[in-house]
C-alpha cells in the first residue's frame, strides 16, 4: 500500500557547505546543524542542486494528530486508569483542556483528534474525526489484537487523513496517541522486534505499582509465547500486539514518508509505531525526526536500536504528542539560521573554518 523513496541526497554537500560557511566556528550550533541538514534535505526533494542557493525551506501548517484507541489488555489491570479514561481524555482534547491543546495553541500546531476505536464513541458535536476500527481491540494475550481487515482499513484511513492534511498545505506532521493500556502494547511490540523479554521492555507507564508492572510482564510474555511463530513479520506484529491507534500511526507515518515530508516522532508509543513503519519501509526513517526521549524504561533502547538521537530529554511520560509539540521551536530555529544567518562573505568576517 505504501512505496517510500530513498531521499535524494545529491544536494547534501551544498547544504553542508552553506551551513559551514555561516558566521560561526565549524559545528558550533551542534545538533541544530544536524537537524538543519535533515530538514533542508527533505524539503528540497524535487529541487535540482543548481536551484538550491535560492531555496528557502519553511515549515508550513504543522499539524499534530492525536490518535485514540482502546485496548482489550487494559481490562486485565495493566494501568492505573480504567479504559473509560480514554474517552474522557478525548473529550478533554476536543474541548481544549489538555496539555497537548495548551502546547499546540502556544506553538502554532494545527491539532486534529481521531477516534480510531474507543469504547464510548464521542458525541459528533465534539468535532473528533471518526476513523473507528471497532470499539476495543481484543486482548493480545488470548488472540491477535487486530484482524487483517482492521489493519488494512486503519492504513487506508490514515493515508486519506495525511493526504487531506497535505493538500491543506501541511509539510510537517506529528503524531500523538491516547489509549489506556497502550504502553503495554508498545512494550510488547518492542519485545517482538528486538527479541528482548518483557522484563526489559516494560516500565511504569503512567505511574503504576510494581505489582502492576509484574502483571504487564506476565501478560506480555504470555502473548509473545502465544504469537511466537508470527513475530517475524512487522504486519503480523502489529496485528498480534498493537492497537487501533498504533495501527493508524504506522499508516500515517508511512503515508507522510511516501509524500517525502517531515515526520515528528513523539515518545514511547509513537516510537514503537515508528519501528514498525521502518521495518515495513526502511526508507521511511530518513523522514523522521525523533522529538524526545521519554522516561519510559525502554524508550532509550528503542532509539538506540535505530541509532536515533532525540532532540529533547525532559523526562516526559504523558503521551498525547506533547514531546513532539515541544520540538517545533527547534525545527524553526534550524531553518531560521539556515535561511537568514550571514555567511562570512556576507558579513565581511574573516573565515574561521
Automatic annotation (TrEMBL):
One Pfam family this sequence matches: DBI_PRT
Catalytic activity line of the entry: 5,6-dimethylbenzimidazole + nicotinate beta-D-ribonucleotide = alpha-ribazole 5'-phosphate + nicotinate + H(+)
Active site: 320
One GO biological process term: cobalamin biosynthetic process
Keyword Transferase: yes
EC id: 2.4.2.21
Keywords: Cobalamin biosynthesis, Glycosyltransferase, Transferase
Gene Ontology MF annotations: nicotinate-nucleotide-dimethylbenzimidazole phosphoribosyltransferase activity
Source organism superkingdom: Bacteria
Summary of the function given for this chain in its UniProt record: Catalyzes the synthesis of alpha-ribazole-5'-phosphate from nicotinate mononucleotide (NAMN) and 5,6-dimethylbenzimidazole (DMB).
Protein name as catalogued: Nicotinate-nucleotide--dimethylbenzimidazole phosphoribosyltransferase
Organism: Pseudoalteromonas phenolica
Amino acid at each position: 500500500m505504501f512505496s517510500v523513496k530513498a531521499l535524494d541526497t545529491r544536494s547534501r554537500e551544498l547544504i553542508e557547505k552553506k551551513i559551514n560557511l555561516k558566521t560561526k566556528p565549524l559545528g558550533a550550533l551542534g545538533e541544530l546543524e544536524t537537524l538543519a541538514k535533515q530538514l533542508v534535505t527533505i524539503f528540497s526533494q524535487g529541487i535540482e542542486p543548481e536551484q538550491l542557493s535560492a531555496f528557502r525551506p519553511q515549515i508550513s501548517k504543522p499539524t499534530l494528530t492525536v490518535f485514540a484507541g482502546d485496548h482489550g489488555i487494559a481490562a486485565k489491570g495493566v494501568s492505573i486508569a480504567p479504559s473509560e479514561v480514554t474517552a474522557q481524555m478525548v473529550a478533554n482534547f476536543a474541548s481544549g483542556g489538555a496539555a497537548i491543546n495548551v502546547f499546540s495553541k502556544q506553538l502554532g500546531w494545527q491539532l486534529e483528534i481521531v477516534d480510531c476505536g474507543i469504547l464510548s464513541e464521542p458525541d459528533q458535536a465534539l468535532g473528533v474525526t471518526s476513523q473507528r476500527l471497532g470499539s476495543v481491540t481484543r486482548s493480545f494475550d488470548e488472540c491477535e489484537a487486530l484482524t487483517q481487515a482492521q489493519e488494512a482499513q486503519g492504513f487506508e484511513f490514515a493515508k486519506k487523513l495525511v493526504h487531506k492534511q497535505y493538500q491543506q498545505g501541511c509539510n510537517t506532521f506529528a503524531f500523538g496517541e491516547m489509549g489506556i493500556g497502550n504502553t503495554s502494547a508498545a512494550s510488547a511490540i518492542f519485545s517482538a522486534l528486538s527479541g528482548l523479554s518483557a522484563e526489559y521492555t516494560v516500565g511504569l507507564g503512567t505511574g503504576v505499582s510494581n505489582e502492576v508492572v509484574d502483571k504487564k510482564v506476565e501478560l506480555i510474555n504470555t502473548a509473545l509465547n502465544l504469537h511466537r511463530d508470527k513475530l517475524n513479520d512487522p504486519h503480523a506484529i502489529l496485528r498480534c500486539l498493537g492497537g487501533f491507534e498504533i495501527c493508524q500511526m504506522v499508516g500515517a507515518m508511512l503515508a507522510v514518508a511516501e509524500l517525502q515530508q517531515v515526520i515528528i516522532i513523539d515518545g514511547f508509543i509513537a516510537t514503537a509505531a515508528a519501528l514498525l513503519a521502518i521495518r515495513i519501509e526502511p526508507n521511511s526513517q530518513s523522514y523522521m525526526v525523533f522529538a524526545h526521549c521519554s522516561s519510559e524504561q525502554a524508550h532509550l533502547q528503542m532509539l538506540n536500536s535505530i541509532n536515533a538521537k532525540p532532540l529533547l530529554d525532559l523526562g516526559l511520560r504523558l503521551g498525547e504528542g506533547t514531546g513532539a509539540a515541544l520540538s517545533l521551536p527547534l525545527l524553526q530555529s534550524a531553518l531560521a539560521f539556515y535561511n537568514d544567518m550571514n555567511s562570512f562573505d556576507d558579513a565581511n568576517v574573516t573565515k574561521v573554518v
